[in-house]
Amino acid sequence: MDNEIQIHPPVVILARPQMGENIGAAARAMMNCGLSDLRLVAPRDGWPNAAALPMAAGGKSIIENALVFDTVAAATSDISFLAATSARRRDLAIRSCDPRGAAEMIVAHTNLSGGKTNKVDETLTAMLFGPEASGLDNDEVALADILVMASLNPDYPSLNLAQGVLLMAWEWRMAAYLASQQSDTAASDQLISDQLAKPIMPDAPPASIKERDFLFQRLEAALDDGGFFTAPDMSHVVKRNLRAFFTRAAPSAQEISTLHGVIQALTRKRD
Question: What end-to-end distance do the CA atoms of the chain give, in Å?
Fold first, then answer.
């Protein structure tokens, strides 16, 4: 199957991992599924850690080439699509899905960005895992494009670090294999469309088209008054791009209200 997978694998980022043994076991899980790029954020016991190598087994090269960062923000600075994992729901306006849906989105984003293994200009995607005891904090989750939650026993949904990495890596491997069998990116486009069609949060549905349109009209008027549209023959293209941006973002009604406040604050001095 390895020769048939043409999708560049995602980076695996472990935030504040607590034990070298767990890092090693995670590296072994990565190697099982064909992932090789490991990044560590502030490992508790420092790095390198001799306890990681015995547990890594065949993943020794992953351990030896792991990169270390001080913060999650630094570790993800070159990532174009980030999937953060969690065992619990968060009170954040972030799209959520299961591991299979996340893997499909990672593969789809890689395809759309030209991220084949034989490309030089590949776009990086990543899977982010939190520390064993507490998981990711909300500020770290907020950096992600999607929040990944597995449907497990609600009385005990927490996986150990290596289990979580293996679950996500295997789902990516299956999604990458299927995508590699396709002759074009149409299916990848559909994967993204299907995932983006899902509500961000069950209790925060996207704003209506009318609400988005009213916001855009107000934004357009403010930009026009501020002299933003300097090239009349291109203004319609810029406006179309702005409208597409807000549509793609699928903001909630509450977020629309916040953006109205932003526009009001920015234009207050001119009124």
Answer: 63
